[in-house]
Amino acid sequence: MTRDCELTTKERIVDEALTLFAVKGFNGTSVKNIAEAVGIKDSSLYKHFKSKKEIMDTIIRQMRSRMEDMSNAMGLPDEQNYTAAAKAYGDLDLKGLITLSKKVLQFYLNDSYVSRFWRLATIEQYQNEEIYLVYRKIFMEESITYQTILFREMIRANIFVDADPEVMAMNFYTPIFFLLSKYMQQPEKEEEALKILERQITEFSRIYQRNV
Question: Which of 41, 47, 81, 118 lies at a 20 to 30 A Cα distance from 68?
């Protein structure tokens, strides 16, 4: 078996495992279930992963990588340079900010990997603390932390009015998190979600952005 075939098999194992975890939960899915979904024997699966836990760790790493790829593909400002990020967002007019926000929401709603991970984390949040902590970190804490620092810089740059940047971040992100929670499993209602998001971004801009 060539290296490419091995990688393809590993990718299939991860993909099928994520699907099963999202339906049956981590504890409710066995290695045998995953192997059967891939169409291989248990012994063949163990050639690629030592344990179910290692498969889960791979899913988490790939989830983080997927988020980074999305940020790069959409040209989101680098969180390592908040001054530049503040300027980049400040240069956007309302239409540009709405367009960018819609693209991000559409990514979350339409990306199969993200939606399955979200469902997995929702199932596991009361059963598997490790998975829940990853979910909370990616979808809650990191977003609020990034936006708090970003908005603080935008206040200093006189782009936003003087306000509590952490409260500002929560006012911006909480409705988006709500939209994700409500519409993640309802792709047919994407247009409805986008219209609500547009109203949210418009109102946020009216409240916090300085009129130059």
Answer: 47
Q: How far out from the chain centre does Cα 177 lie?
A: 10
pLDDT tens column, 156-181: 889 899 999 999 999 999 999 999 98
What is the predicted pLDDT for the residue at 7? 53
User: How many other C-beta atoms can be found within 10 angstroms of the C-beta atom of residue 32?
Assistant: 11
CB atoms within 10 A of CB 180: 17
CA dist 130 and 118 (Å) reads 14
Cβ atoms 139, 177 nearer than 8 A: yes
pLDDT > 70: what percent of the chain? Answer: 92
Q: Which amino acid is at 90?
A: G
Spell out the residues 6+ positions from residue 162 whose beta carbon is closer than 8 angstroms to its own.
Answer: 155
CA quadruple 135, 110, 120, 183: dihedral, nearest 10? 80
